[in-house]
Design a protein that fits this description.
The structure holds 2 protein chains of 2 kinds. Chain A has strands at about 5, 10-15, 20-25, 30-35, 45-50, 55-60, 60-65, 70-75, 85-90, 100, 105-110. Chain A is mostly beta strands. The chains are: A mainly beta, B mainly beta.
């Protein structure tokens, strides 16, 4: 079946690293995504990873994929107050639909 | 142009009103989507248009009626809505392949009174 799970809340101090975790169930998913949603806004595609990759780095963002355990993580280095938002993990199994996790609210304390 | 533009940004309507939400993209994307999002929840897929044809209707009540007049425009016609339909309505588009994800608009915040 298609299911994506995330923890609901993460609180970090400004300057620390944040790690947001996600697990998915559909092994047919070839692309996995991280979206960011700020209050009152739409969803912004942060990054994606192809399933034959283990890691992808883009400036302060590092995505790690453990395909065996179907586990995806997003690390944000040097977290800033502007990173406060809801982060959604998403997969696209063979159905072609974008399946979202419940979203992790990241709170960054000064 | 790398954006999806949605209008209006906010809409308040009565249960007997008829209104329309509009979505526009000029990225040449061939797939367009409507999502409904309640507060603190992930977006829920409503409709998918592929090459201007409706390809997926996720059992959405008929009081929501989508329309795709051309490859750049997507409308959502609303009629006889209920208060529980109040939500953020998001439009998205994609190139159709899975590599690039979806580009989302900022949404229309709908309140049904």
């Amino acid at each position: 079946g298609e299911d994506v799970e995330q923890s609901l809340f993460l609180s970090v101090r400004e300057g620390d690293s944040s790690v947001i975790n996600c697990t998915y169930t559909d092994s047919s998913s070839t692309y996995l995504y991280w979206y960011k949603q700020e209050p009152g806004a739409g969803l912004q595609l942060l990054t994606y990873i192809f399933s034959n990759m283990d890691m992808k780095q883009d400036q302060r963002l590092t995505v790690l994929l453990n395909k065996k355990d179907k586990h995806l993580s997003l690390r944000i280095a040097d977290t800033q107050t502007g990173d406060s938002a809801i982060y959604f993990c998403a997969e696209t199994p063979n159905t072609g639909k974008l399946i979202f996790g419940q979203g992790t609210t990241l709170q960054v304390k000064p | 142009d790398t954006e999806v533009t949605q209008t209006p940004k906010h809409l308040v309507m009565g249960m007997t009103n008829k209104k329309s939400l509009k979505c526009e993209q000029h990225m040449g994307h061939r797939a367009m989507y409507w999502y409904k999002q309640k507060a603190k929840k992930p977006p829920e897929l409503m409709f998918v248009y592929s090459y201007e044809k409706l390809s997926i209707n996720e059992s959405v009540p008929s009081r929501f009626s989508p329309e795709c007049p051309n490859s750049s425009l997507l409308n959502l016609h609303l009629h006889a809505l209920q208060p529980e339909d109040s939500a953020l309505y998001l439009c998205a588009s994609s190139q159709g392949g899975r590599a690039y994800g979806y580009t989302f608009g900022s949404g229309t915040r709908l309140t049904v009174v």
